[in-house]
Design brief:
By secondary structure, the chain is α+β, with helices and mostly antiparallel strands. The chain is built from three helices and eight strands. The chain has a five-stranded antiparallel sheet with strand order 6-2-1-7-8. Strands 4-3-5 form a three-stranded antiparallel sheet, with no helix packed on it. The longest helix has 28 residues.
Amino acid sequence: MTKPNPIWLGAALLLQLLIIVAALLLAQLPLLTGTEIRLAAQPVDPRSLLRGNYVILDYPQLRPSTEQLQQAQLRPSQPFYIRLEANADGLYQFAGLSPMPPSNGLYLRGRVPNPISSRRIRYGIEALFLPKQQALATEAKLRDGAIVRVRVDSRGQARLVALEP
């Protein structure tokens, strides 16, 4: 039996490390390069016994109607894009739906739920995990809704930055 070549072993380890670092950087890209926007949000579920303390946020102003989803002929689990426009208060809201990324302007990437329903669309900014005491305090602050600061990158990927009760 031959001994493994240390160069190949080192190269294999380095490749695995690079893949992990690349995945982490891609996940953080919206926070590093994204445009910060503000969205109105409503809390849905503050805690779960199975998942821990978190706040689930809903964004009614980002929801296309079920009819719009069906007219766009999108399939379940297919990504789609919504254009965003700022209203008079500086909060961003739904301004159009497309199966392809818009050529200009700010947009979010979402996924069509199965079954198709505008109520269950996910953009990746719905869950905010917090320590127990902070989650309880946040729950009390958000009962009447809140403003969420989000960073959106050039691919429509978004990440939560902060909550403004």
